[in-house]
């Protein structure tokens, strides 16, 4: 412990080092010996893997390019967000030029509609359609009479040998069966009124049909279109009676969709058809 004199003289005893402690740190030649420091334990995140990145000019340039790329992507995202917000909160309206264009288009449509509603335009359209119908009627095949079928081959030729647009109606009858005479007369009249429909007649005995059908199945009508059976009317006397007129058979066939109603055909077409006859 330092005395009062030591403190007054300024002697600092705590700076004193023993010779033994000094000699421990020096070797025999007076040189200090330094013990190698233990290397610090490497941190896993900073451990060197044998390669270095971003340490030279190329690495700096690469980092700069990456930085600029991120900046561009961020600016583009901001622009897209601003565009969406502007579109969301903007008030949509048309310009004066667009209004004028839309107005002119509406005026054109009104003028065209007024022309279409004109009486003369409607008459021209009706006349054009009538001419087309007349031309179609003229090009169709005309028959105007009843074709008598003699055997099975003739029956098949009458059905399959015609154009697909032609309707073929075949009457099955026997001379002494009730209702057959009225059916024959009605079919002959209808063949003249519906010249574009092919009417035929045949006796069941000539096409190898059963005896039961000959007795109880006639008069009967078979209707074909494009070679396919579209109507089969057996023993029509149950519906029309044994004596019936042409108009009765015509209404019966119109009701079942075999013939077209002549009342629905324009008068112009009927007049042209009668003139051709």
UniProtKB/TrEMBL annotation:
Highest taxon of the lineage: Eukaryota
Coiled coil ranges: 61-119
Keywords: Coiled coil, Phosphoprotein
CDD domains: Phd_like_Phd
Annotated GO biological process: regulation of G protein-coupled receptor signaling pathway
The name this protein goes by in its record: EOG090X08Y3
Keyword Metal-binding on entry: no
SUPFAM superfamilies assigned: Thioredoxin-like (SSF52833)
Keyword Coiled coil: yes
Family: Belongs to the phosducin family.
Cited Gene3D superfamilies: Glutaredoxin (3.40.30.10), Phosducin, domain 2 (1.10.168.10)
Residues covered by region (Disordered): 15-52
UniProt domain Phosducin: residue ranges: 46-265
Pfam families: Phosducin
